[in-house]
Structures are given as structure tokens and as C-alpha cells.
Amino acid sequence: MTGANMNDRFVKIDKILSSACEDALIPGAVFLAGKGGETLFCRAYGFASLEPESVQMTPDTRFDLASLTKVVAVWPCIVRLLEAGSLSLSDPLPSLLPWDFPAEMHPITLLHLLTHTAGLVEDADLDGFGETREERVRGITRIPLRYPMGQVHYSDLSFILLGEIAAHKTGLPLSEAAAQVWRSLGMMDTGYCPPAGLPFAATEKVNGKVISGTVHDERAQQLFGVAGHAGVFSTAKDLGIFCRNLIPGSGSGICGDEWLKRSFRLWRRDPKWDRGLAFVVYREDPEGNLIGHTGFTGTSFKVDTKTGSYAVLLTNRVHPTRENHNLQSIREAIDEVYFP
User: Fold this and answer.
1) Dihedral, CA of residue 279, residue 282, residue 286 and residue 287, to nearest 10
2) Which of 21, 144, 250, 286 could form a disulfide with 46 if both were Cys (CB 3.0 to 4.6 A apart)?
3) How far apart are CA 87 and CA 70, in angstroms?
């Protein structure tokens, strides 16, 4: 914990997470909250791994972010290109990548990809398209569209394509293009394919072996650890830095206020989660929306762009099995306290 005293909100959140770990609803967690440039609370709970041995969770434990990769890695690269005029939201897919696309994909725009409205399938097995990473990502062009363009259907493939667009337009591998953003913000513990020996939160047990320090997502595995939809590892501290750079008026090191506000406005409505540019819009307000994202492994963050408050909740809920479905109620309980 930072600061001399916990206010009532953090006393309640501390109890929620302590109880969740003690009751084995989740193995462990790290929760960080802040406002503007100040971290108000940061604490670790439970265990980073239960198998093959118990390891205590610490505030500097690195987590597989899963789908937080979409907003932490890809969105910053794309929004910088948009701000520079190197990309436009109306750019069609054939102008974004030098690939041969089928005719049905020609109308897909950058906006469709960023809002999950391109009509692409949610996910697909890519290793059947070849042995190399390039063959596998280009294999997406051979997968027929499943949904009407313009309807929200969450798709990892959209962000795999966006990652390739970021790499193509910057002239750098996605891992390097994203790292340039992270280092400029001071996020030194964030990256793809982290070196061994660091403190990791374990994920799933597969074929008798616990995954720890390598990416959990199957599609990211097929793309050798670097993909637009998953693959990034980070800490609560680094995500706190990222969150404070999402607040308009903060002097963000990612992009100017215009593109922050454009990213967080509601672009497409959806019965489950309304969509901004890459982000989920949880709540609308004329003075600033509540935005954020979640990840399959048990990661999430939310930012209230009106008040400047943010919260990062990192858990290893898929350890040792993905059949743990307790996290949503824990998130909701924390949200009731921190984002009422």
C-alpha cells in the first residue's frame, strides 16, 4: 500500500480480494488504484502459482495480459499513426497491408477493425496455413467473413491484422514498435516474449505442465509469441503508468487529447459491451467516459476519464485451469466500490 492510510474504499477492496484468495476463488491478484499521476493503493494477494509449487504473489509479479494486448500494444501504435496522418479511420484494408485480399474484404476499414465490426470470425486455427509467421497471419485472408460488416462481433483476428498494420506502417516488428511507446512512457517491465527467471503469475496447466512466463493464448503461440490480440506481459505498476496516460489533459505521452477523446467516445453500441476505438466503453458521460478492457487470463483495467481515477486488477484466474469462472463477481464487487 502507498500512502499512510487506506480510505474506506480501499479497506473494502482489500477485504474483497483477501477473502477471494482465502476462499480459493482465485489463486492471487495484484490491485493498483490511482488518480492523475498519483498511485493511491497497490497490494498483492494470494499466490502467483499453486503448482508445481506455491509461490507468493508480489506487486512486481509479471502477468500474461492476454487481450489487454489489444489496447496496451496495438492501439498506441495505431493512434500515433492516426495522429501523424499516416493512417485514416476510413482507409480500406487493401491500402493498409500489401497483401492480396479477397473482394469481400476490400470494404473493411481501419475503423471496422478497431471497433470489432469487420465481420471476421472470433478466432481461427492459423497453423494450418504454413510454418512461418507470415504464412500464418496471411492465412486470415483465406477465412471467409462470418458476420455482416458493421455489427459488433468481438474478433481476435481483427487485432492480429491491426498488429500487422502497425508493423507495416512503422517499418518495425510489432514488438519493437510497441516497445518504443512503452519505453517513452517509462514502462520498463512490459513486453512480448519476456526473458526467463522473472517473477511470473502462472497460467494454465496443459498436458501436465504449468505455463509460466510464456504466452497462454493458443493463437499467439502459433505466431511465436508476438500478436496484436495477445502476447504482452506486464506488471500492475506499468499498467498504472499506462492508465494515467489515458487521461485527457494529463499531458499524455501516447498522443494528444484529441485522439484520446476520439478513442474513448462511443463508436458502436453492443448488447454486451459498447465499443470505442479498441477500448470498451463501460459508461458514458458528457464530461468523460469510463473505459477499459479485460483479458482472458484474468487481467483488466478501467479508467474514468472524467475524474482521472483508474484501477488495475491483475489475477491469474486460469491457474491451474480456465474452468474458474469466479472472477466476474469479484470485478463487479470492486467496481461497485471504486466506480459506483
Assistant:
1) -70
2) 21
3) 18
First to last CA, the chain: 22
| Residue pLDDT, tens place only, 216-237 | 999 999 999 999 999 999 999 9
From the CB of residue 24, how many other CB atoms can be counted at a distance below 10 Å? 12
- Under DSSP, the state recorded for 241 is H
Residue 239: partners with Cβ closer than 8 Å, 6 or more residues away: 32, 68, 72, 301, 312, 314
H, E, C per residue of 314-328: EECCCCCCCCCCCHH
Which residue segments constitute the domains of the chain, with CATH numbers given? 8-68+199-223+232-338 (3.40.710.10), 72-170 (no CATH)
Q: Are the C-beta atoms of 317 and 328 separated by less than 8 Å?
A: no
Look up the pTM and report it: 0.97
Low-confidence ranges of the chain (pLDDT < 50): 1-5
Q: List residues bridging with 46 in a β-sheet.
A: 28
Place of cell 509467421: 133
What does the alpha-carbon distance between residue 169 and residue 325 come to, in Å, rounded to a whole number? 39
**Dist CA 315 CA 295 (whole Å):** 10
Place of cell 506481459: 233
Contact call for residues 36 and 250 (beta carbons, < 8 A): yes
Neighbours of 172 (CB within 10 A): 15
Q: Is 251 helix (H, G, I), strand (E, B) or coil?
A: coil
CA distance 112 to 151: 9
